[in-house]
Amino acid sequence: MSAGGSIGMVLDRALNMDLLDVALRVATEHGEAADARQLLTVALRDFVTPQEAENKTRKVLTRVWLLPPTNAQAMIRWGINHQDEMADRRALHFGALLATFPFVGSIAAAVGRQIHIDGAADRKSLRAFARATFGEREFIDAGASKSLATMRNLGLLDGPQDGPYQVADRLAVPPAFSSWFLHALALTRQTESVRVAELSRAFELTGVAVEPTTSTYSLLDFHAENGSIVAVVRESVG
């Protein structure tokens, strides 16, 4: 289900490593096949009910790894092709979630902002933020909760299920993926450009450790602007 404005689909299922790894494997082995989604359904039956495997869980995972939004397709394909260079798949999955679910990026930014200010993030306040930003609707409230649960499942947040949340050990991102995360940041903010320096200060990336560097990456162009380096998403991408 989509929220108002341009936020896109709301994450309505809490994801974990097992589910995301299954989707990544199917995308890696069969991503271009016409029956990839059916193959994902079969693979998911080992982890969720048959109904979930054929409906909402499959729909969410398909959006992340098999059939992402048009503007994220090249970026996700790059991540699939270079996944062996990312030692911690949790960071890989988080980057893909940012790129394909701007709603998750918005919740992650709110989490990072509150941790930066208060030292911890409060679940009640985060859900209130989601309702104030996207509307007083039940599925928005649920989406915020599912996003937080997913971040906990990936080890981005530490703390009880109902909070308060703090940052666990930040997930390491290799230099080869720095521009990929910069691209994810642009996609989750739904903007055409982003400063390279954002890699070290963006609230969305509070749970990961990314070195700001202009690594070789064909999907962004880099320009000097007002004393800083700006990454611009290439027009051919979506």
Shape: globular
| Beta-strand content bin | 5-15%
Average pLDDT figure = 92
Pairing-aware structural class of the strands and helices? mainly alpha
Query: Could you list the spans in which at least 5 consecutive residues all have pLDDT below 50?
Result: 1-5
| DSSP E strands, number | 7
H and E string? HHHHHHHHHEEEHEEEE
**Main sheet attributes: strand count, strand direction, barrel closure:** 3 strands, antiparallel
Count of runs of 4 or more consecutive helical residues:
10
Major sheet: arrangement of strands = 4-7-6
Q: Roughly what percent helix?
A: 40-55%
* End-to-end Cα distance: 22 Å
Radius of gyration: 17 Å
What does this structure look like?
- This protein has 238 residues and is mainly α.
- It has helices at residues 17-30, 36-44, 50-54, 56-66, 73-81, 89-100, 102-118, 123-134, 138-153, 178-189, and strands at residues 157-158, 166-167, 171-172, 193-195, 208-209, 220-225, 228-233.
- A three-stranded antiparallel β-sheet has the order 4-7-6, covered by helices on one side. A two-stranded antiparallel ribbon has the order 1-2.
